[in-house]
């Protein structure tokens, strides 16, 4: 990607999507070719600094505190040579609400400019509650809900690397502060699910969703209409595929459990069988079925972590694109309302002028 950054190793997700290059044909994410609307529009600096890179890892999730007030903190390690950062390698501790707070800040700053902001992982109230109420374990990294914690850790890492790949977002002051400031960030209270702000945010999102569904306007831009329909169609197919993959993972896990039951039954029969040859055969069958169980379990995990999570990220990206498109629809709506209001004022001023003209006569 042309820009101020160059990753040593391209992220595994969305590496075929270039939201800044207008050169690729049939790219559904490229902007419509048109003259700049204003000289104040932000321009992305492009140069050939191919030796610049930034790599971010999220690791060591650990539970902080006890009870319902506890939370999970993550170690965020950055390795980069971009000059805007103070060091080449540094680490900070961040909690999940900090990631959501960063995303909200970037959306507030850049969404109306038409920039696609990589989506942050969504909250999971059930998983969070399980981890919060779990009893402390003797060994770190074990306990209730650790599979869910690992899923979230990987999703947060992908989110940060996706943001770091963007030539504008990666040098944003708030993004840099998130990565390198050793002080605790201001508490992002708006991200709390059960807070008053969280409830208001939920109602606002519901209102936005209803507005997207009910509000229709005559579209006079063929490019926008075509790309909007294409994104909607791709998003629908992605969601169907994601649901099918989730069902596949569930069936693979059930098959793995049933295979394990066969292995245990064969092992039990081998101990009860008096015939030596048959007992040996049953024992070997139990060993084979146990290996098949492990293989099917690994396959189910691969389907979940590689395929299902990848599709989930793509669905989130399509949601971000639709948000950008909706901002354009809202801008058109505001323009229409203002133009109609202006017409009303012009008509009112014309009537006032007619009154004054009558008085002059």
Automatic annotation (TrEMBL):
Residues 52-186 form the PX domain. One of its GO terms (cellular component) is endosome membrane. InterPro entries: AH/BAR_dom_sf, PX_dom, PX_dom_sf, Vps5_C. Pfam families: PX (PF00787), Vps5 (PF09325). GO terms for biological process: early endosome to Golgi transport. GO terms for molecular function: phosphatidylinositol binding. CDD domains: PX_SNX1_2_like. Belongs to the sorting nexin family. This is PX domain-containing protein. It comes from Lutzomyia longipalpis.
């Amino acid at each position: 990607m042309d820009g101020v950054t160059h990753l040593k190793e391209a992220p595994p997700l969305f590496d075929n999507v270039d939201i800044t290059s207008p050169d690729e044909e049939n790219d559904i994410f490229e902007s419509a070719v048109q003259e700049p609307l204003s000289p104040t529009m932000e321009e992305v600096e492009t140069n050939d600094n191919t030796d610049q890179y930034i790599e971010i890892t999220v690791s060591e999730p650990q539970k902080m505190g006890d009870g319902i007030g506890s939370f999970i903190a993550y170690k965020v390690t950055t390795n980069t040579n971009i000059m805007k950062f103070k060091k080449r390698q540094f680490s900070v501790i961040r909690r999940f609400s900090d990631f959501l707070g960063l995303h909200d800040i970037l959306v507030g700053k850049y969404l109306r400019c038409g920039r696609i902001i990589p989506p942050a992982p969504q909250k999971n109230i059930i998983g969070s509650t399980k981890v919060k109420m779990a009893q402390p374990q003797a060994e770190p990294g074990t306990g209730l809900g650790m599979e869910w914690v690992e899923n979230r850790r990987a999703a947060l890492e992908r989110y940060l690397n996706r943001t770091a790949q963007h030539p504008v977002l990666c040098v944003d002051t708030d993004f840099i502060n998130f990565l390198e400031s050793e002080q605790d960030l201001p508490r992002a209270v708006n991200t709390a699910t059960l807070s008053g702000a969280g409830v208001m945010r939920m109602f606002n999102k519901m209102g936005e969703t209803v507005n997207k569904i009910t509000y229709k306007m005559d579209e006079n831009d063929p490019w926008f209409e075509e790309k909007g329909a294409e994104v909607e169609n791709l998003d629908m197919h992605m969601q169907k595929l994601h649901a099918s993959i989730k069902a596949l993972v569930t069936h693979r896990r059930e098959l793995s459990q049933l295979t394990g039951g066969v292995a245990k039954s064969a092992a039990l029969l081998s101990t009860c069988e008096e015939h030596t040859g048959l007992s040996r055969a049953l024992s070997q069958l139990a060993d084979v079925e146990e290996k098949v169980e492990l293989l099917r379990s690994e396959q189910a995990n691969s389907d979940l972590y590689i395929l299902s999570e990848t599709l989930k990220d793509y669905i989130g990206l399509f949601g971000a694109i639709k948000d950008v498109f909706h901002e354009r629809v809202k801008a058109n709506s505001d323009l229409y309302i203002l133009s109609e209001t202006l017409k009303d004022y012009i008509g009112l001023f014309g009537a006032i002028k007619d009154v004054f003209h009558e008085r002059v006569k």
